[in-house]
């Protein structure tokens, strides 16, 4: 390791930035944020720096660099675009035993400024010792994604109660267990749920109680999105990377599952056993058993857990058994498939509302009247509809939807094998049969579905009408 990593406490210490441009401004701002007393020296200052000087946030030397500027400084940053001048600043600093950083010049720098991920009081610093600062930034971005923002409050809490923790757990091994519990258990989980007072109470209770803390499990109902791994949320990714057990559904893609922690136990609960899905009660029992054994369980569901996903039932079950449960939304099929088929679900000229429906279950659409089914200015996004297309189309036409209403089926939405099949209420059932549409597929019905014929941008578009009838003209609003 060529560089010795160190975090410096600069509060109240005088430091110098040489330069008056935007780089100098950035350096001065970071030093000020760390509490240093910043002086900036240059012949001219860019407008923000000039304002900071006027308002007294930083002091200034006006003019060409003079070695006397270094008097009494702890650090100096040379941030001009004049290489010989930067070298001179570094040389003068060395003579006076002052640490110097020359922006973008590792050879001249006595200290380097790392790329940081700030979850204060936790700070992660990344340096490549000047080898490739741009790569350090990429690595910082990776860390930015995996480090939960609730880590800041967690560390602050640990800091606030550090003395009690040390008093209570004098033994290092016991203390390490305690910190593990803090990170893995209910305290961090409560902070992620934006319940800081409760988190603190749980911590205090644990410090009061005798004996060691027992590992408590948790369950997160996590939306995996429609399949494309890039459509996973950051929070879903973080929980997957911490999970001990992942209970996943049939709709969850391999690519998404591959993002789980390497040694997490992944259990398929969407499997069809002898034609039947693993019973919901079995899933309930598995979640509970793993959580009670102190594991972090991710219940991973396609799309969003609360949209046709039985998330509500699972949450109620867990809560009734006293198991902590958080919910991470996912991009639901209607939103994802529409986007990947170029269909705006609402449009000022064509659709003012959206209805998410399922065709599954006994008489699913029976209870819906004309207001939902017949409204030509409402887009219908129908889940689990492929097997009932004839019935659905007939029902909609019976509810006064025009047989010429544009429709689109999006099969395997967002996955490499995505197909969009465009038609009308009248033609779609036959089209679906001809092209052997399979589940998972989402059905979009309404004027906006016609956009797919012109704007579908991902995967394959099947548009038989393209060779014959021109697409029904959509009104394009004139933009003033
Ligand atoms: N909770 C899920 C829906 C589960 S119901 C969500 O929010 O998306 C299962 C139905 O969702 C499927 O039958 C299909 O209609 C739809 N679906 C889910 N993923 C899909 C995909 N990638 N492409 C097309 N339809 C999908």
UniProtKB/TrEMBL annotation:
Belongs to the precorrin methyltransferase family. This is Sirohydrochlorin ferrochelatase. GO terms for molecular function: NAD binding; precorrin-2 dehydrogenase activity; sirohydrochlorin ferrochelatase activity; uroporphyrin-III C-methyltransferase activity. Keywords: Cobalamin biosynthesis, Lyase, Methyltransferase, Multifunctional enzyme, NAD, Oxidoreductase, Porphyrin biosynthesis, S-adenosyl-L-methionine, Transferase. The active site is at residues 249, 271. The keyword Phosphoprotein does not apply. Pathway: Porphyrin-containing compound metabolism; siroheme biosynthesis; sirohydrochlorin from precorrin-2: step 1/1; Cofactor biosynthesis; adenosylcobalamin biosynthesis; precorrin-2 from uroporphyrinogen III: step 1/1; Porphyrin-containing compound metabolism; siroheme biosynthesis; precorrin-2 from uroporphyrinogen III: step 1/1. InterPro entries: 4pyrrol_Mease, 4pyrrol_Methylase_sf, 4pyrrole_Mease_sub1, 4pyrrole_Mease_sub2, CobA/CysG_C, NAD(P)-bd_dom_sf, Siro_Cobalamin_biosynth, Sirohaem_synt_dimer_dom_sf.
């Amino acid at each position: 390791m060529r560089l010795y990593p160190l975090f410096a406490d600069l509060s109240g210490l005088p430091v110098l930035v040489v330069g008056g441009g935007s780089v100098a401004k950035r350096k001065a701002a970071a030093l000020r944020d760390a509490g240093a007393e910043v002086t900036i020296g240059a012949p001219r200052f860019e407008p923000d720096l000039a304002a900071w000087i006027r308002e007294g946030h930083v002091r200034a030397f006006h003019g060409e660099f003079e070695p006397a500027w270094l008097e009494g400084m702890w650090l100096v940053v040379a941030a001009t675009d004049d290489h010989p001048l930067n070298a001179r600043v570094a040389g003068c600093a060395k003579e006076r035993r002052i640490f110097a950083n020359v922006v973008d010049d590792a050879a001249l720098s006595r200290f380097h400024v790392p790329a940081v991920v700030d979850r204060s009081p936790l700070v992660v610093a990344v340096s490549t010792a000047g080898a490739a600062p741009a790569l350090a930034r990429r690595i910082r971005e990776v860390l930015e994604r995996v480090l939960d923002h609730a880590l800041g409050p967690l560390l602050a809490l640990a800091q606030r109660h550090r003395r009690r923790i040390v008093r209570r757990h004098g033994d290092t091994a016991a203390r390490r267990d305690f910190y593990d519990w803090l990170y893995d258990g209910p305290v961090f989980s409560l902070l992620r749920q934006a319940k800081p007072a409760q988190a603190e109470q749980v911590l205090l209770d644990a410090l009061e109680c005798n004996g060691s803390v027992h590992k408590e499990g948790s369950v997160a109902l996590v939306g995996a999105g429609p399949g494309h791994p890039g459509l996973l949320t950051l929070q879903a990714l973080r929980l997957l990377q911490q999970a001990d057990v992942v209970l996943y559904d049939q709709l969850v893609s391999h690519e998404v599952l591959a993002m789980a922690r390497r040694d997490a136990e992944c259990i398929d609960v969407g499997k069809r056993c002898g034609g039947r899905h693993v019973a919901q009660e079995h899933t309930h029992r598995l979640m509970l058993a793993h959580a009670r054994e102190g594991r972090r369980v991710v219940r991973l569901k396609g799309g969003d857990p609360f949209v046709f996903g039985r998330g509500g039932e699972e949450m109620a079950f867990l809560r009734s058994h006293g198991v902590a449960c958080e919910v991470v939304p996912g991009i639901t099929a209607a939103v994802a498939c529409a986007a990947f088929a170029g269909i705006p679900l609402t449009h000022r000229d064509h659709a003012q509302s959206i209805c998410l429906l399922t065709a599954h279950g006994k008489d699913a659409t029976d209870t819906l009247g004309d207001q939902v089914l017949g409204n030509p200015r409402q887009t219908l996004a129908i889940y689990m509809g492929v097997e009932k297309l004839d019935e659905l189309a007939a029902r909609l036409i019976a509810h006064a939807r025009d047989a010429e209403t544009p429709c689109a089926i999006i099969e395997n939405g967002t996955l490499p094998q995505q197909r969009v099949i465009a038609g009308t209420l009248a033609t779609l059932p036959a089209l679906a049969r001809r092209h052997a549409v399979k589940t998972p597929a989402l059905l979009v019905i309404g004027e906006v579905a016609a956009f797919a014929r012109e704007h579908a941008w991902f995967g394959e578009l099947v548009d038989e009408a393209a060779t014959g009838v021109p697409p029904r003209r959509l009104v394009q609003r004139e933009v003033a």
